[in-house]
Description:
Strand order of the largest sheet: 7-6-5-1-2-3-4-8
Strand content: 15-25%
Oligomer: single chain
Radius of gyration: 26 Å
Mean pLDDT: 82
Distance between the termini: 75 Å
Shape: globular
Low-confidence stretches: 1-27
Helix content: 25-40%
Structural class: alpha/beta
Amino acid sequence: MPLSCWSAPPCDDDRVSPKNVAIPEGEGLSGTVRIGSARSVARRIEPGEIAVIEAPDLDRETAELLAARRPTAVLNAADSASGRIPNLGPGVLLGEGIVLVDSMGTEVLALREGQQVELRDGVVVAAGAEIAEGRVVTGEHLEHAATRAREGARFQLDGVAAATAELLVREQDLLLDGMGLPDLAALFADRPSLVIAQRASTAATLQEIRPWIRDARPVVVAVETAADTAREAGIQPDVILGPLEDVSEDALTSGAHLVLHAAGRAAGGGRTSELGIEQLRVDSALPSRAVALLLAGHHGASVVVAAGMDEGPEESLDGGREPAAASSLVRHVLGARLVAARSIPALVRPRIRTWQLLLLALAALLALGIALLTTQVGQAALGVG
Length: 385
């Protein structure tokens, strides 16, 4: 894909271009504030509310999760599209008609959860006082940021190469030998595995591959809040991996193996301790989805199907250099065993089940019996009529 497609507005013809989105001017918007990490807010916010986050260079995956909840506006304390990398998140929000105001500074983070605010021309007003002011993001701003990102694309690729070398040195034991991963080899050995990450499209992907899940009975590894998405789809995770901060209590107590991905911190561990649930632990600077793929791969999974991780060329740098480097390294380590979930329907035909064959045979016998009873030859053969 040409570098001209590495821009904030998606290149796909069936997506809405941000420059076509009307941003309200003068007339204010109002709503209830939901504040926190972008992914945490995406789980709690209701349609018509206002998200307050701090997400520099907002990536597409996070933006999709927010957009799926239909907030009125997203207020970002950081710069949503700095032009440093060709991130796609702002284009997703604008393409869905969601107002995005960024570079609001830490003042906007002082708002309280559930507080009623008004947004007017990039200014947040609460209880009659101006709290913070930012820039209303437009398609023109994204185009300028995309131009800067394209101009620096060569340096970004050089940065990914440098990050890849650094990760390989720092994480080589985990990447190459699986050292530091919890011992779950008996669970994965010689079985297919399904690793699920959270995206707005994850639920639809799971529905598409449901026949394969039913037939293959894979070991299911859910990354963080994907555990709840999987359970809502009727799929029980065998392993839940991640910081475990935003996973529901129902999922945590469902009987799955819990693997706390600490990344140098003890996030989430307090929740499981309070619930009296045993957990395993892995310390790594790699993204949780990369660790989940390696967990299945290094423990002998026959195939590793990745759901919610579809990445095209335009998304390769969307999350930054280190995630791009980690993705490249994991793909290299797993090799041909790594398969995108959306490829499954084209590669696997549903297996004809025994009950289906019996039903077909019964129908054939019934049809034969009716034919014999309605013909003279059949009646004579059966001694009836």
